[in-house]
């Protein structure tokens, strides 16, 4: 009886256990299905997260279609790291999505709305905010290099949290996570701030941050520090392979009061999209920033995230870009130096092409294709190489030279282009070669003009400059600089440009000096830079122009330049504006150049900015030189005569006219400068 009872009890226990196990498994299945349903509802386009992660790998350490020898480099370690990262990302995304549903985190006010454009023209119109800035106060890059707008545009109706008493890192800690695929700014999509949807306090904050940075920091503070960018390389670039023994590089980035999100996105884009063994170190040179979060808080961020290759070096006073970069150069220990700006993002495969070219020939200086990050929306657009660097010889400004379509069609898409000049913000150079070539001119101030100086020096002294189409780095171009230097940018640029012209441009420097009306200012001691040119046995500037820019229009040689002053009245010729067709008048001399600056060329033209002084029925007009401009001669009697005639430029009661030459003082004129002697006429 007892045995039968024990058997019944055991049977009952087994039955209860089975039921409990079945119910538990059933409930687990229901919970898992509920979670999957939530994920699908929140991200209907994401079917398989594991596949998505593999497709959009944000860490970028693997290389596309590389050879077997490359895959063998630490292959087991790399595979382990990638598997771990994928699992970690998948878990983070899962937790993040569930938290969004349950706790309604900060993104509750952000509405992402993707609007796919049907045509390229519509996309360009939608991306009208990608305006870009200037390089050295020269041409707008957006006018020279076309931007390819990306798929959609994110419309942000309510912006990131307001700045409170918390630290900058705490305020923006959410940006440290890898963001969902459709988060603001992912894959380079623009983030549009709708000001009408912001509160008065948020609008005030938005404007304050924009004024501080000259770009939309409010938009930047919504974009992950690890944002994904599309792989914009050509197929031939993706298939290109590189040696396993490339030298590593020291990356030097100078900054002053840079926005937290932009600076860290710069650093993470370098680390996430570069093979670790090619990054020797990243040196951040803090040029005397006064924002608190760029001090201890920044150091702690790198330490806590195990970013041992990143070092912050701080200047004792405001130095400016040139001398701050020289400080970074002194501290760097890598064989190759890569100079970058503090508001950039690197694309996949950006580093290897630069290092490979220098490894083959240490006298090469190699720059990436510079793509654009909008200062308004932080949209990051990629473009094929469309232009090379050149310059305007009359004002010493950097310009872009559009590549001829025929020439481009003949060029192998993955091969570098020789470029007469580089923009200067982004390039790689051998450390030993940089030293031998005289580094930067430390007599220059702040920034501006140093890119032309190093471009002339490299080419004239035996090196070469290249832009590599397989290397892409995007840059925020600001329309104005937010920084104050104690003197105008024009003064700084003039000093730096005059130093360049005096050392490297030989007789061609007068073309630039004429534009300055020979007001060269104090440009400091250049004797040691001239000694450097002699030591390096550099070629002439004429060789540089003929070799690199044979089609550049060089202004005709001048005999005289400057003001044209009447010896009787003391009045000066003035075009009364820049419009062709104006009647020239005589007014008091102001000694500022401008409308009173003229050039007397060897062919007999009196010109200014492609327009010439022309005799029309006895009156003097300012017309385009190509429209039958009058040719003149300047006589020993200081007369300005119509060539091969006896008619002279005359001034009678403030009225200019062309009359028979009779030797009156009112027909005598003085030029400010005789170019042949490089000295004033009087």
TrEMBL record:
Coiled-coil annotated spans: none
Q: Which GO terms describe its molecular function?
A: carbohydrate binding; polypeptide N-acetylgalactosaminyltransferase activity
Q: In which pathway does it act?
A: Protein modification; protein glycosylation
Matching entries from InterPro entries are given as: GalNAc-T, Glyco_trans_2-like, Nucleotide-diphossugar_trans, Ricin_B-like_lectins, Ricin_B_lectin
Q: How does it sit in the membrane?
A: Single-pass type II membrane protein
Its EC number(s): 2.4.1.-
* Ranges of compositional bias, category Polar residues: 68-78
Q: Indicate where this protein is primarily found.
A: Golgi
Gene3D superfamilies in the record: 2.80.10.50, Spore Coat Polysaccharide Biosynthesis Protein SpsA, Chain A
Q: Where is this region: Disordered?
A: 60-79
Cofactor(s) the record lists: Mn(2+)
PROSITE patterns the UniProt entry points to: RICIN_B_LECTIN
The record's subcellular locations are: Golgi apparatus membrane
| GO CC field | Golgi membrane
Q: What superkingdom heads the lineage?
A: Eukaryota
Q: Which GO terms describe its biological process?
A: protein O-linked glycosylation
Bilayer-spanning residue ranges: 9-28
Residue ranges annotated for the Ricin B lectin domain, each copy included: 561-672
Judged by the first EC level, this protein's enzyme class is transferase
Q: Which UniProt keywords apply?
A: Disulfide bond, Glycoprotein, Glycosyltransferase, Golgi apparatus, Lectin, Manganese, Membrane, Signal-anchor, Transferase, Transmembrane, Transmembrane helix
Q: Which PANTHER family match?
A: N-ACETYLGALACTOSAMINYLTRANSFERASE, POLYPEPTIDE N-ACETYLGALACTOSAMINYLTRANSFERASE 9-RELATED
Q: Which family does it belong to?
A: Belongs to the glycosyltransferase 2 family. GalNAc-T subfamily.
Q: Report what the protein is called.
A: Polypeptide N-acetylgalactosaminyltransferase
Q: Which organism is it from?
A: Crassostrea virginica (Eastern oyster)
What gene is behind this protein?
A: LOC111113366
């Amino acid at each position: 009886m007892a045995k039968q009872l024990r058997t019944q009890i055991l049977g009952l226990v087994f039955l209860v256990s089975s039921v409990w196990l079945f119910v538990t498994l059933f409930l687990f299945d229901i919970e898992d299905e509920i979670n999957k349903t939530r994920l699908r509802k929140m991200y209907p386009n994401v079917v398989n997260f594991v596949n998505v992660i593999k497709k959009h790998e944000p860490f970028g350490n693997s290389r596309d279609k590389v050879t077997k020898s490359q895959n063998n480099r630490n292959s087991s370690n790399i595979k382990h790291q990638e598997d771990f990262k994928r699992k970690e990302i998948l878990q983070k995304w899962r937790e993040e999505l569930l938290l969004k549903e349950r706790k309604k985190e900060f993104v509750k006010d952000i509405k992402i709305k993707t609007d796919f454009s049907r045509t390229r023209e519509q996309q360009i119109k939608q991306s009208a905010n990608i305006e870009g800035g200037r390089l050295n106060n020269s041409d707008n890059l957006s006018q020279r290099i076309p931007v390819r707008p990306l798929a959609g545009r994110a419309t942000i109706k309510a912006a990131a949290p307001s700045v409170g008493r918390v630290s900058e890192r705490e305020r923006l800690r959410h940006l440290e996570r890898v963001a969902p695929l459709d988060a603001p700014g992912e894959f380079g999509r623009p983030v549009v701030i709708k000001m009408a949807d912001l509160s008065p306090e948020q609008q005030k904050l938005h404007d304050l941050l924009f004024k501080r940075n000259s770009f939309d920091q409010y938009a930047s503070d919504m974009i992950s520090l690890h944002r994904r960018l599309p792989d914009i390389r050509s197929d031939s670039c993706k298939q290109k392979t590189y040696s396993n023994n490339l030298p590593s590089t020291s990356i030097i980035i100078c900054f002053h009061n840079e926005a937290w999100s932009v600076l860290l996105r710069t650093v993470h884009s370098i680390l996430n999209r570069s093979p670790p063994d090619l990054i020797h170190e990243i040196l951040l040179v803090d040029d005397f920033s006064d924002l608190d979060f760029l001090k201890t808080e920044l150091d702690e961020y790198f330490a806590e995230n195990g970013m041992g290759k990143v070092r912050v070096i701080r200047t004792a006073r405001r130095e400016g870009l040139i001398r701050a970069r020289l400080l970074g150069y002194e501290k760097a220990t890598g064989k190759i130096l890569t100079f970058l700006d503090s508001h950039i993002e690197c694309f996949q495969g950006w580093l290897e092409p630069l290092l490979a070219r220098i490894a083959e020939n240490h006298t090469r200086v190699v720059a990436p294709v510079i793509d654009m990050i909008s200062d308004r929306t932080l949209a990051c657009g990629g473009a094929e190489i469309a232009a090379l660097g050149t310059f305007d010889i009359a004002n010493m400004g950097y310009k872009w030279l559009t590549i001829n379509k025929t020439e481009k069609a003949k060029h192998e898409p993955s091969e570098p282009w020789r470029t007469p000049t580089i923009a200067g913000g982004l390039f790689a150079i051998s450390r030993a070669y940089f030293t031998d070539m005289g580094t930067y001119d430390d007599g220059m101030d702040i920034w501006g003009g140093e890119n032309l100086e190093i471009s002339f020096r490299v080419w004239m002294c035996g090196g070469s400059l290249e832009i590599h189409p397989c290397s892409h780095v995007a840059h925020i171009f600001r329309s104005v600089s937010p920084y104050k230097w104690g003197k105008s940018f024009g003064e700084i640029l003039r000093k730096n440009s005059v130093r360049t012209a005096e050392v490297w441009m030989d007789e061609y420097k007068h073309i630039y000096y004429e534009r300055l009306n020979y007001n060269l200012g104090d440009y400091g001691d250049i004797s040691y830079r001239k000694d450097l040119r002699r030591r390096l046995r550099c070629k002439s500037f004429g060789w540089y122009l003929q070799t690199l820019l044979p089609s550049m229009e060089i202004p005709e040689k001048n005999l005289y330049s400057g003001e044209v002053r009447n010896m009787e009245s003391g009045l000066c010729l003035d075009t009364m504006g820049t419009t062709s067709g104006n009647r020239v008048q005589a007014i008091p001399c102001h000694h500022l150049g401008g409308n009173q600056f003229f050039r007397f060329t060897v062919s007999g033209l009196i010109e200014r900015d492609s327009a010439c002084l022309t005799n029309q029925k006895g009156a003097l007009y300012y017309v385009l030189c190509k429209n039958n401009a009058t040719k003149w001669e300047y006589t020993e009697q200081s007369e300005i005569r119509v060539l091969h005639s006896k008619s002279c430029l005359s001034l009678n009661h403030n009225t200019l006219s062309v009359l028979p030459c009779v030797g009156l003082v009112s027909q005598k004129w003085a030029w400010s400068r005789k170019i042949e002697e490089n000295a004033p006429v009087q």
